Amino acid sequence: MTALTLSTAAASGLRADAIVVGVAKGAKGAVVAPGAESVDKAYDGKLASVLETLGASGAEGEVTKLPAPSGFKAPVVVAVGLGTVPEKDETYGTDALRRAAGTAARALTGSKKAGFALPTEDADDAGAIAEGALLGAYSFDAYKENGSAKGKNGKAAKDSKGPLAEIALLGGKSRDKAYKAAVERATAVSEELNRCRDLINTPPNDLNPEAFAAVVTAAGKEHGIKVQVLDEKALTKGGFGGILGVGVGSEAPPRLVKLSYTSSKAKKHLAFVGKGITYDSGGISLKPAGHNETMKCDMSGAAAVFAAVVAAARLGLEVNVTGWLALAENMPSGSATRPGDVLRMYSGKTVEVLNTDAEGRLVLADAIAKASEDQPDAIVDVATLTGAMMMALGSRTFGIMANDDAFRAAIHDVSLEAGEDSWPMPLPEHLKKGMDSPTADIANMGERMGGGLVAGLFLQEFVGEGITWAHLDIAGPAYNEGGPFGYTPKGGTGSAVRTLVRLAERTAAGDLG
């Protein structure tokens, strides 16, 4: 993990590979952003014009490298675009700073140290820059002999280019409690989010339900979190027909993992439930070629829940947080669940399985019903659940459904505050009829149009009476198949982790009732 510190050093005197500054789009051209005054002065106040000569405009995501001025110990200055200059009495905003820091960190892959001299008005800005830089410095090279991971001889290859190793935030107040707390929070959340990304990126032949549960158990011991793992025997004894029905076709049996973080000062209890399909072939309703190559990411919801609970523990939040990871591998075989089979769920309801590729809702239903027994103040489930949500909202926005409009709105606000794009979605009652079954209490499929909403309505059937619940469908943003941008890498992104952590923080502070 990249190291990060607050530094009071002057940009000119910092021993580093590069100094990062911000540049923005002004009405008359590029403008050097606050935080880089000493760097601009070293260019005789002409840094903006030099950058424009090199083609820089200040557009978001733009990176321009140039030789550092005489007298600087760092050889390079990296100017990163912040977008349009804010209006008078406004600031650049934490989102813009987070993305710029991530862009700069990615541009400095292979460097040992960089100083970040971006606009820092307060501790929130410092935290955003720290978070963006740490998330942008992420790389997953565990399976590359010539990457930053060690090769067969136990040593990194000569052409190894690991992530930026050390970050110094310039202009931060290293002795200020608020600044220190913001950076410590950013470090804890970023480390757990990057662990979430590692899990998502791990090939399914190395991460089956048992292996995932082992990772969680080890982390629980490290951070004082109680972990309970229900194996296939315990699941059978407990009547978890949904989880078992999905996992029965695989040689790797399913697991239900419970993580419990408790605070002696807690007044509220949150339950997070994550879909953890470690590989989704579609089962007997087999996915076609072109739709199964990235299905190792179908456990992104469980990884996000795991990361959020550990982050809550590391931050010592005054709220009880329970995580439920519904882990299974969905494979076709002679023992696999067939379309037309009926499963008796943990709640006692029966479900006619019309499509074995609608498996996520089956494992989640059991986990939600089990989580309801603890009578938490709220349940939030997270899942890469439907392609329909991707069609509706694209690849960077997750959908929010809930049985309480105020809670849905609160989660939307929390997600935006955390820097994650989301959108509130309805749960239309009329779509329930499409799940009527002549054989069972409910079918696992309904109308094709509005499929993401149908999935939410299905899950709602398994929420305990009187319990506030929300469903986050992260199918779009959980796995980035395109090129990296901002602090978002190619591959697993860690979607929803920051939203869940911020929700826990707001709940601990009493902001959510």
Architecture overview:
The chain has 513 residues and is α/β, with parallel strands linked by helices. The protein is built from 14 helices and 20 strands. The protein has helices at 37-42, 47-53, 94-107, 123-136, 177-201, 209-223, 232-238, 241-247, 300-315, 360-372, 387-393, 405-418, 451-460, 497-508; strands at residues 3-7, 18-26, 29-32, 63-67, 76-84, 113-117, 166-170, 226-230, 255-261, 269-280, 320-330, 342-344, 350-352, 378-383, 398-402, 422-424, 442-443, 468-473, 479-480, 491-492. The strands form 4 sheets. It has an 8-stranded mixed sheet with strand order 8-9-11-10-14-18-15-16, with helices on both faces. Strands 1, 2, 3, 4, 5, 6 and 7 form a 7-stranded mixed sheet that branches. It has a 3-stranded mixed sheet with strand order 12-13-17. The radius of gyration is 24 Å and the shape is elongated.
User: Count of helical segments?
Assistant: 14
- Cα-atom radius of gyration: 24 Å
Output the strand order for the largest sheet. 8-9-11-10-14-18-15-16
Instruction: Based on Cα principal axes, name the global outline.
Output: elongated
Q: Structural class from helices and strands?
A: alpha/beta
Fraction of residues in β-strands: 15-25%
Query: Runs with pLDDT <50, length 5+?
Result: 148-154
Mean pLDDT: 95
Number of strands: 20
Oligomer: single chain
